[in-house]
Amino acid sequence: MTRMTGFYSDEWTFWHSVGLQALFLPIGGYVQPPSGAAGADTPDSKRRLWSLLKTSGLMERLAVAGPAKVDNADLIRVHTQRYIDEFKEVSAAGGGDIGDFAPFSAGGFDIARISAGLAKAAISDVTTGKVARAYALCRPAGHHCLADRSMGFCVLANIPIAIEAARADHGLGKVAILDWDVHHGNGTQSIYYERGDTLTISIHQENCFPPGYSGVEDRGEGDGGGANINIALPPGAGDAAYLSSIDTIVLPALERFRPDLIVIASGLDAGAADPMARMLVHSETFRAMTQRMVDAADRLCSGRLVIVHEGGYSEASVPFLGLAIVEALSGERTDVVDPTLAIFQAQQPGPETTAFQLQWVDRLAHIFAT
Ligand code: ZN
After folding, report:
1. Does residue 210 have a cis bond before it (omega within 30 degrees)?
2. Which of 38, 131, 140, 203 lies in disulfide reach of 6, CB 3.0 to 4.6 Å?
3. Angle formed by the axes of helices 108-128 and 81-92, nearest 10°
């Protein structure tokens, strides 16, 4: 029997709240309280993806799992005990923000442990062969979170927690993490910066978040030297620049590294409609990038591929981007046609801008060729 693709989600993750915000700004001073939901990190982008997977019929063709929760033994492999204790205390006292732009409400600690638990279950099940590939619909996201500080809507480092649990529990070896969230995967980078067993690659918009940081020069240190790659793209990059980055930088790096598992930190905020960034990716880009990673996993690591959901803030657009990814991941196709695709394809950069962007990628490819 063909092994299925696992899908991991839990209703509680949609109940995580960053409080009343305007985009990413807390209300106060000259930031006027909105009359409705005006914050970027609402549950709806992810909940609507879940709903589209349901109504399209795709969910029925996946091995659906959840809930799950990580415990202190899982957290302490990645985070400091001091950070864990502080997070737990502030959560019990009604919520707050113990980092930079990463607020949470009462009970946020328990919901974050569920979010990380979904990633843990997905990576565990792929590592042990229970499912062929897996998608974890995590919320809150994880890729900005540091060992000792939360950041950018991220309060636990979901992917490192999940990888280190699989290493401890199942002897998982080398892992390659591709982060295509439009923001830099700084938390994942910092956790694995001196580790040679984990390749971290981030494709992101230059200087987007954290502001003023692109990180092309940051290649890792010590045992991790050369095992960190930052592909910082100019604002306005779309289908051509992203696929060229995958083909000329990511795939050669994966071939050299020979991972035992590939994990994608899949933010959908490079999408053309996202309010938090300035890229022009559409659903066929995400489908093609996912297909390339499915093929790479088949070639390099017996197909072992896990996708962990990160950011993505366009409530209308994210479901169609996410559906294309899950379709490519599972090898299943629904009859859903992305109603935004034609307009976003028409908005792709013209020939001269595309040529400039491809030269930009080519320059990076030369930097990362060794
Ligand atoms: Zn993001």
Report:
1. yes
2. 131
3. 130
Number of neighbours of residue 86 by Cβ within 10 angstroms: 17
Bridge partner residues of 38 (DSSP): 22
pLDDT in tens, 336-359: 999 999 999 999 999 999 999 999
Catalytic residue (choose from 16, 79, 143, 144): 144
How big is the CA angle at 176 (ends 174 and 181), to the nearest 5 degrees? Answer: 155
Q: Are 161 and 120 in contact, with CB atoms under 8 Å apart?
A: yes
- Distance from the alpha carbon of residue 311 to the mean position of ligand 1, in angstroms: 4
- For residue range 127-137, list pLDDT tens digits in order: 999 999 999 99
**Which spans in 197-350 are helix H?**
239-245, 251-257, 283-300, 318-330, 341-346
296 alpha carbon – ligand 1 mean position (Å): 24
For residue 171, how far is its CA from the centre of ligand 1 (angstroms)? 30
Q: Which domains does the chain have, with CATH numbers?
A: 6-368 (3.40.800.20)
The enclosing H or E element of 88 equals helix 81-92
Residue 124, number of CB atoms within 10 A of its CB: 21
User: Phi and psi for 143 in degrees, rounded to 5?
Assistant: -75, -15
Triad 64, 285, 334: Cα angle to 5°:
40
The yes-or-no answer on residue 144 being catalytic is: yes
Distances in whole angstroms, Cα of residue 321 to Cα of each of 33, 181, 249: 30, 12, 23
